[in-house]
Amino acid sequence: MPGAPPAPTPAVAVEPPQAMAPPPPLPSAAPASSASAEAAKAPEEAGAKIHDTVVFSFRRGDGGRTMAERASAAGEALARAAETSGTEEVRVVYQGDAAVVYAGPVPIAELHPEDATAAGAVSLESYASSVAARVKDAIRAEKKRSAIAGAVFSFSLLVFVGLVAFYVLRKIGEFFERVRKWMVDNPDRIKGIRIQSQEVVGATALRGGALVTLIVGRFVAQIGVVYLWLVFALSLFESTRPYTEKLTGFVVRPLSDLAGRLAASLPVAVVGVVSTVALYVLLRFVQLFFEGVARRQTVLPWLPADLAAPTSVLVRVGLVVLAMALAAPVVTGDADGTIARIGSLAVLAIAIASTPLVATTVLGALLVYGRRVRVGQHVQIGEHAGRVVGVGLLDVQLIDRDGCEVRVPHLVTLYRPTRIAGMRPRIGVDVAIAATADPKRGKTVLLDAASALGERAVVELASADATSHRYRVTVGVPSDTTPGDVRLALLEALAAASLPLGLDSPRGDR
Q1: C-alpha angle with apex 320: 319 to 321, nearest 5 degrees?
Q2: Is the pTM of this model over 0.70?
């Protein structure tokens, strides 16, 4: 009925809704969400680097390798190319549908069309050219950086090694100076070399040889240090390295060849050294033996003491000549070997250079062993006169009227006569007697006076005129008698006989 209130709705019991269980998860829901999370975390590209500098990048894997593996391999190839010469020239080589970027002989990366698409390139060719350009610039930059770093390091190393070399040179000088000072301050600590009772090498000679060895050793050691530093310095830089090879070849190669030859002939060298030492000891023994004969410490019936010194020289020279001419081929086993040739050349050079000496020695041997001139005789060789005090193989030793020693080489006797007066010198003086005196009486007085002074007196009338008679008086007198003594005795005899002197003065003595 209109206007009437609506009829009440009858009450209906409604059960509360029960809680519904969540639907089971779909099988693909969880893997999809995990893959999307990993995709969100995965990098979009992997860069090929040289020392933390990215050259180019990969945006996809290839052939079972991930982007990181491809980038790591390309980075190692770039590092290897940067250390290899001739890799500045970069090229692209196409192999099928792939493009391989080469730096010299080193393959850097293999690119595919998918790599170009992932990088947003128009084509594989343009993408490969872009990668090649980056590789080329990167390799050049890395080589330039390495060259600068190497030059700085080399220069620093050169300065450091130079300081070390200077320090070593200083220490070498100090060491040799300390050794030299010790030898000078302790001369008695260095004794000679003796074989039983014979002194083969004297202490003085051994000290002198040690000092010479020190000087030479110091020089060689310092030169060696400077040479090693110079070779090291030249080898540090590319521009000077050829000079290192030349310097090393100039110095080391001859030494290396010499060492090789010495190693090949080591047994012969050892035998040669032993033979040389034996020859030296023999020569020293011969010298000492004949010196003992000359001092009459050793008496030889067949060799007088005055002939010991020249005989020693002859024997030693003969031993050296025999050793060089005969013993060397026996030791080396080759008559035309190096040692034998050196010996022959040495003998020839000595023979040519000592022709006057050999001639003098031959003449000296004739005089010595022929006894033509004896010690104690008074002789005159050319303009030199005096008493003989020694006759050697090279010269005659005289004591003249002034008491000075005069050595006359034997070669002088080839073109100057030798006057031998004997054991007593003959002195000649000129005496003038007045013409009023009896000449025979004057000669008799002079002869008697001269005979009283010595032996073999001779008086000759040299000249006469209206004022004087000039006589030449010659007489053999003892060694200590002078021409003044002879003249004084003659004047005293004339005065005792009341014979006046002439006006002329003596013309000279001899």
Answers
A1: 95
A2: no
